[in-house]
Structures are given as structure tokens and as C-alpha cells.
Amino acid sequence: MSMKGTQSFHINKGFSKKSNFPQHTTYAQEPLLIWKDWVPFMDIPVEIRVVFAIQFSFYIHSLYATMYMDRWRKDSVVMMFHHFLTLSLEGFAYTVRYYKIGILVVFTHDVTDICLEFTKCNVYMKNRGGKFRPIHDKLSTGGFLFFAGTWALFRLYWYPLKCLHTVGYAMILVAPTTHMPFYVFCNVQLWILLGLDVYWFMFIVNFLIKVVRGDMTEVEDVREHEVEEKWKDQKVEIKNGPQTAINNGPQKDTKNGPQTAINNGPQKDTNNGPQTKTRNGAHNVVLQKRETSQTKVYHLRSTRQRTRTADT
């Protein structure tokens, strides 16, 4: 099928002859058409070049921002790997002229990014100026639900169906006699991207589980270390806080404190202190009395001896 025939096919679908962009718009509905007219070093339309330039510059900035500007999160390393992978995919798709499948990948991923950024803006704006903004709390909740739905639909359903199937299976089926360069390299990168989508979807599922259990009552970024620590502290306070105050506090004071004061303190003073003083004091009195009696007997004997000596 020639390039001209492909254009006429799209024109018959109802698009204007003056625009070059509509000829690429039906690839989402019929992805097999991506490989029908592929040839090495084929021309890339200007609007597609603009999209790739914007995407490439955005991810270069995102990579720099993740490394030097944003706060470090639990998925920052994975985020940096994702940015490197995306830059590799875009540069590879542009160079080998797989730009049509590249546009499909951008479409299935960037829709969710719009919902994500909208939700994050409202999360950061609901506590502003020392006041709680209910409107932003409601918008963040609605945005998160829409974001979770679009993530599951576009990244976990449409992306494997439209992109992975097209590149992995349809590429060989539609163009069996044409040598498609970097077939394995392209598929490996796209499957790694799906793995990253599943990894981040686990954060969404984790948040939904916490909301259902009642552990969290508002939308927060669970990738933040501060949010995780805050959630753990709240969980400990809810489960162990009152019991710790009732069981550990009074019992510690009643059993250890008063008992120590009663058993160790008074007993020490009563047994060791007063008893020691009483016994030692009585013993000293007895000794003094004995010494006094012995002295009197000695003086009495001495007096008797003197008397006898005088009489003699």
C-alpha cells in the first residue's frame, strides 16, 4: 500500500484534505495501519516533530527536577529510571521512524498525567495560609478517583491492547517481508514501561485500601516519607494510645511507683533506719550501764581496801 493510498483511506474516514494530522488520528482505532506504510527514513510530519520536541524537553526537565529540585520520595529512584527510559523510547522512536507507535504511547500515558497533576495541585492547596480549604479537599478527592480510573483504563488496558500487541505481534503479522529494525529492543523497553505502570498502580491500590479501612480520611501523596510516618503515628495512637495511657501509665505508677515507695521506702526506713537506731541505742545504754556498774564496783572495792589498810 502506498503512502498516497493510506492518505486517501483516512480522508474517506471523514477528515479534511487540508490537514496532515488527521491521517494519523485513526491509528488508535486501527493500530495495524501503523506498519502498512512504514519505510526506513520516512518523513515525519511537522506536528509530530513538535510533539516529540515538547515531550523530549519535558522529560529532560523532569529528570533534572527529580535529581536536584523535588523532595526525595520513596519512588524517586524509580522515577529517574522512568525518565531515562522515556527519553530512550522517544529518541529511539524518532530515529527509527516508529513515531506512530510513539504517539500512541504518549496518548495512553499523558491522559493520566493531567489527572495526576490536577489532584496534586489541590492536595497542596487545601492547607494554605494556616487554613483548611474544603473546596480543594473535595476537588482532590474527585481528581484522585478520576485519576485512578484513567490509570487503570489507559495504562493497564489500552496501552497493552493498542501498543504492546501492535509492536509485539502485529508488526510481524502486517509486515512479514519487511525487516523491522530493533524489534527486540523496542519490545523490551515497552514491556519495562508496563512494569513501571503496574508498580505505581500499587501505590493507588494501597491508598484505596487505607481509605476503605479508615486509616486515612483525606487524599495525600503516599509516596512522601512524611505522609507514611504520619499515617503510622496515627495508627499507633488510635490502636495503642488509650490503652497505653490506661494500662501502662497508671499500672506503672500504681505497681512500680507506689509499691516501690511503700515497699522499698518505708520498709527501708522502718527496718533499717528506726530499728538500727533503736537496737544500737539500747545496746549503747546497756554498755554504758555496765561500764558505770563496773566503775562503781571498782571504786567500792578500792575504798574497802583502803579502809582495811588504814585499820591495820
Molecular structure report:
This protein is mainly alpha-helical. The protein contains seven helices and two strands. Helix 2 (46-68) packs antiparallel against helix 3, helix 3 (76-96) runs antiparallel to helix 4 (99-125) and helix 5 (134-174) packs antiparallel against helix 6 (183-213). The longest helix is centred in the C-terminal third of the chain and has 87 residues, at 225-311. The radius of gyration is 44 Å and the shape is elongated.
| Radius of gyration based on Cα positions | 44 Å
Helix content: over 70%
Sum up the overall morphology in one term. elongated
What sequence of helices (H) and strands (E) makes up the elements?
A: HHHHEEHHH
Helical/strand content category: mainly alpha
**Total count of helical runs of at least 4 residues:** 7
Q: Identify low-pLDDT runs.
A: 1-24, 243-255, 257-279
Distance between the termini: 166 Å
How are strands sequenced across the largest beta sheet? Answer: 1-2
Oligomer: single chain
Residues in β-strands, percent = under 5%
Q: Kindly state the mean pLDDT as a whole number? A: 74
Extended strand count: 2
Write the layout of secondary structure elements.
Blueprint: H1 3-11, H2 46-68, H3 76-96, H4 99-125, E1 127-128, E2 131-132, H5 134-174, H6 183-213, H7 225-311
Antiparallel strand pairs: 1-2
Q: Keywords for this structure?
A:
disordered N terminus; two-stranded antiparallel sheet; 2 strands; 312 residues; mainly alpha
Put the structure in a nutshell.
With 312 residues, the chain is mainly alpha-helical. Helices cover 77% and strands 1% of the residues.
